[in-house]
Design goal:
The structure is a single chain. By secondary structure, the protein is mainly alpha-helical. The chain is built from four helices and three strands. A three-stranded antiparallel beta sheet has the order 2-1-3. A hairpin with a 6-residue loop joins strand 1 and strand 2.
């Protein structure tokens, strides 16, 4: 007696290269031939995005609070208060950088949550991520320019 052969069941899959989306049994994209990502794989990537997003948000908030506390305590001394006032532009640049990185983390958190819930990627979140990444780079160069 022979056992019936297991047939692969069609499931929702995505191709990250050509953006093919559909329910197929194949492991490779019918359009470009690259490996397709299943909804399970996309959800796992979503979990990673949520973890990274939370890490970035917590770290930036922690750094902002820590630097703010140090600055506030140092500003109680009149000599330090004058130095801090002279470095206002630097503090603004640093806090802007922290804010943009926190927004990047927030987008990662939202995008990861979307992927976990729906098992699909969302192009809007991906484009927002690219814009925020560009802003992070601009903020980094701006902070370096201000420090010099």
């Amino acid at each position: 007696m022979t056992l019936p052969q297991a047939t692969s069941v069609a499931e929702y899959k995505e191709c990250f290269k050509c953006n093919f989306r559909g329910e197929v049994a194949d492991a490779n994209c019918p359009k470009c031939g690259k490996v397709l990502r299943s909804a399970k794989n996309i959800r796992i990537r979503g979990i990673v995005l949520v973890a990274i997003g939370l890490f970035l948000i917590v770290m930036m908030a922690g750094l902002a609070i820590f630097i703010g506390t140090l600055t506030t305590n140092a500003a109680r001394d009149p000599a330090n208060a004058q130095k801090i006032a002279e470095q206002r532009t630097l503090f603004t640049a640093v806090y802007t950088l922290f804010g943009v990185i926190a927004l990047f983390g927030l987008n990662g958190l939202a995008m990861g949550t979307w992927q976990i819930v729906f098992g699909r990627r969302n192009r809007v979140f991906i484009w927002i991520m690219f814009v925020l990444l560009a802003l992070v780079l601009i903020a980094c160069f701006g902070a370096v320019f201000i420090v010099k």
